[in-house]
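#dry-run=false #mode=assembly
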Amino acid sequence: MSSVRLDSVSKTFGATAAVDTLSLTIADGEFFVILGPSGAGKTTTLRLVAGLETPDGGAIHLDGENVTHAHPAERDVAFVFQQYSLYPHLTVFDNIAFPLRSPKRRIAEVDIRQRVEQVAAVLHIESKLARKATALSGGEMQRVAIGRALVRQPRVFLMDEPLSSLDAKLREELRIELKRLQRDLGATVIYVTHDQVEATTLADRIGILEGGRLLQVDTPQQIYDEPQSLQVAQRLGSPHINLLPAAWMNGHAPRDAHHLAIRPEDIQVVAPEHPEFDAAFPFSAIECSLEKHLLVAERDAIEVRVTLLMEHTYASGSEIRLAFPKNRRIYFDSSGKRLAS
Amino acid sequence: MAEIRIENLHKSFADFVAVRQCSLNIADGKFVVLLGPSGCGKTTTLRMIAGLEFPTSGQILLGGEDVTYLRPRHRDIAMVFQLFALYPHMRVRQNLAFPLQNEGLPRSEIERRIAHVAEILRIGEILDCPVGGLSGGDRQRIALGRAIVRHPKAFLMDEPLGTLDAEFRELMCVELRRLHNQIGTTTVFVTHDQNEAMALADMIVVMNRGDILQADSPERIYNFPASKFVANFIGQPAMNFLKLDQPVRCGTAMVRVGGAQTAVAEPLADAAEGLLGVRPEHVAFAADGPLAGEIVTSEYFGSHHITTVATSAGPIKVHVPKGERPLMGSNVRLKFNSQRVVLFDSRTELLIPNRESVQKGACHV
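#status=ok
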């Protein structure tokens, strides 16, 4: 496995800069997730690393070797796409064996059999090897597609939303499996997604990409707990982080603070006489759902969402008091830049 | 506006039973969601209410009137498929006026209704724009608007949000529910997505293989699922099911799993073999917890972790608050929230009624 380094890589299509002077170093054995909305430049970044696109500027290194202009085949990276793109006329075995049978490799058929069977066991598809690829379920097909990448033992795995066409249950199952696999193999993975759950559960580090630029690169917990900009704060979290006017904090907010952001699970419902909080505000409950653990409340036409495990509901329209613990408040200036509290 | 009553509705295609002897009362003004996996019969049920399909037997009453074999256009209901079905070459106003012109309404009435709908849906400024150039959200509002202007007795919606991405779907859910609160038209909505069901419904009807398994409020479906299937279908991650060491005794509010004693709401029936059903959010790490285990996987979701603990009662998924750091391989003890766990009969896979569930009026099969 290899490390990957991008130095000021740019790629424009017509007038739009899909990837804009992007610099990034991914360590050997790291699971790196690029998270962003559609059109952020995620897939282009991946295609640049694969050699399916040539950058307009900058350089790409694999293990210190400059591969910026190397042919895709010379880079020895494996690409897993969203659509499994298997060969429908071949069996599962032959689909997985396909990359090994390339004339360049000249691997003995016994060795191929051994490698394919090994990979199939890892992915729990050993009983399906003789089937036609088209006779499989969606989850099994995506396993085969991953198997085809694994069998090559490439320097880097590039994955473009590999789970997004699967249903929720399968996605969860394959997610856990993929993470285990990566850990066991010590594989370097660059994984692109717009799904925040995949990002926080899979990644060693996440890069938040928007408009072809990386807004923040950090561990999932740092991105979630310490977002350096409002955009990043809003990218993770379900329900979304709450945005309140910093003016509510009435002198307790730092100078230049415009927004106060706070996560739904950090807000506390407090009894009226609760002494510990310097700022507990009266709110009016709008909606309350036991099964979603969600309370929506309003004050001055501003809605907040609170997630908490409740024993009973708050009736719509009832008065409640909400407190925003000091160490959980995140302030941003009017441009969306993080301010020190 | 009208209530919808379905009585012993049955539909078979050759030797396949799509809907089996289903009965259901939908009160006037309710938002009802038919929920289930593909092939469960939810869409067939909706199509029979719409009149797009005739039942093999049974009856459908709309506002007291038997409409079982009426043509769709004589039922006075509006069907909303994928919300994008608009006439692309027409302006927004024409799209909205179209169904009304077909009904032969006078022009002044049409104008009045369009103005009203435009206000509800906040699309006043785009009434004279061509549909082609509009955003996805606006198009969906217009598609809804076209159903609303007709003032139908009921709305029927077949996975209208199915093609949207997750974030947008959530927004549209909020919008749909807000709309329903405003206009209060009886709505039947079909989906396989539990989140949509939970966000929208006054009543959720869980179906599987042509049968209605439970028709109940979202709260009761969550707290007192009538069967293991329902319990499994609602909640993410799904409920944990742990095999009990001993038979369930009517009136004994204590059970044993994996050698550990834990309290439950008092069961009102016996079962030779039982399962303890516990949602991940109702188990917690606690030094004095009765059940010991080892953390085998843990996934981080920002606001919390979902951690799998291997125990003598089997693997258990636990919802762990973000402040804690569950480490793979570490030993923990688990405690169940005895107020929120439920029991199932292993053989029938049905909920064993308890004092709590009966008091709260949960439906029991």
